[in-house]
Write a structure and sequence with these properties.
The protein is α/β, with parallel strands linked by helices and about 300 residues long. The chain has one domain (about 45-280): NAD(P)-binding Rossmann-like Domain (Rossmann fold, 3-Layer(aba) Sandwich), CATH 3.40.50.720. Helices cover about 45% and strands about 15% of the residues. It has 9 helices and 11 strands. The chain has helices at about 55-70, 80-90, 105-120, 145-170, 185, 195-215, 260-270, 280-290, 295-305; strands spanning about 35, 40, 50, 70-75, 100, 125-130, 135, 175-180, 220-225, 235-240, 275. The strands form 3 sheets. A 7-stranded parallel β-sheet has the order 5-4-3-6-8-9-11, with helices on both faces. A two-stranded antiparallel ribbon has the order 1-2. A hairpin with a 2-residue loop joins strand 1 (about 35) and strand 2. Helix 1 packs parallel to helix 2, helix 3 packs parallel to helix 4 (about 145-170) and helix 8 (about 280-290) crosses helix 9.
Length: about 300
């Protein structure tokens, strides 16, 4: 999907300044429906979404893909300017999109975002939790505060989001939650980013448990587990101690295009798909691990030893 040129518009000073009224006819009633496949949201036209971490990478690609599917999108990012820039791009798709600053480590910020979206768009149907930071270093050299920062940003941000938005989705009896985890949470192929891997494994477990709870209540859940993606996540990395090597799940694995990942997210929402992988090879590795966990781990150790 080619990027549309940015549309120049005045930037609101605060989230509240972004609020304006739009007609009720622009907003879908948001109803998803049950089928033999589960909770489907096949027609996304007029739905309302929040995408955190939406100012770049997978968040940007997902926000643009949702807008192209007819979704009104609130793009939230710790960098307000980036969120506004993506909102301008998304607005070219013909839906009402706006950007806002959001610190996912602050529960009050989530509550403010919720109130702004409801006042501007009237409802919320899709919540995509897509923020992630990385602490890198040898296990004994990464300090406790980096573990705490990583877990707060990558895991507890979703807990804060759930506390804020799940009551709305449950009350309306429809919706979809997308949590961005990582291949690094599915199985271990490196030790240099241990807090990140542990946090993403927690996101997968959280998402599975959430699906058990929400699915019978007509709310879908998707867990996105990307392999390498061409993003700016290195800007969110901190390093402790001696320099360390960054390893992909498989040597030579080509980074995915964030725009293509966004299309996968939209397809998963439409078809109520829980697990989304960006590379077919990841599925093959999961099967290999399930068939022989001891052998799988031994092979990963050999791979590291061989460099």
């Amino acid at each position: 999907m080619p990027d549309a040129p940015a549309l120049s518009r005045p930037a609101p000073e605060t989230c509240e300044d972004a609020v304006r009224d739009i007609s009720d006819s622009d907003i879908s009633d948001g109803r998803s429906h049950q089928s033999h496949r589960g909770v489907l949201m096949e027609d996304l036209l007029g739905k309302v979404a929040l995408v955190t971490g939406g100012g770049s990478g997978i968040g940007r690609g997902s926000a643009l893909a949702l807008a192209a599917a007819g979704v009104h999108v609130a793009i939230a990012d710790v960098d307000r300017d980036r969120a506004m820039a993506v909102a301008d791009e998304a607005s070219w798709r013909g839906t009402d999109c706006f950007g806002m600053a959001l610190d996912v480590n602050d529960l009050t910020a989530f509550e403010t975002a919720r109130d702004v979206i409801l006042r501007r768009l009237g409802r919320i149907d899709i919540v995509m939790n897509n923020v992630g930071v990385v602490a890198a270093g040898l296990p004994e050299e990464i300090p406790l505060h980096e573990w705490e920062r990583t877990m707060s940003t990558n895991v507890l941000s979703i807990v804060r989001s759930n506390a804020t938005f799940l009551p709305l989705l449950l009350e309306q009896g429809s919706g979809h939650v997308v949590n961005t985890a990582s291949a690094a949470g599915l199985f271990q192929y490196e030790y240099e980013r241990m807090p990140y891997s542990v946090s993403k494994a927690a996101v997968i477990a959280l998402s599975e448990a959430l699906a058990l709870y929400l699915h019978p209540r007509h709310v879908g859940v998707t867990c996105l587990c990307p392999g390498p993606v061409a993003t700016n996540i290195r800007q969110q990395m901190t390093f402790s101690g001696a320099p360390v090597r960054m390893r992909p799940p498989i040597k030579g694995m080509t980074p995915a295009d964030p725009m293509a990942v966004g299309d996968l997210v939209v397809d998963a929402i439409r078809n109520d798909r829980f697990l989304v992988l960006t590379h077919p090879e990841l599925h093959e590795l999961l099967v290999e691990r399930a068939m022989d966990p001891e052998g799988f781990l031994a092979a990963r150790i050999r791979s590291i030893e061989e460099g």
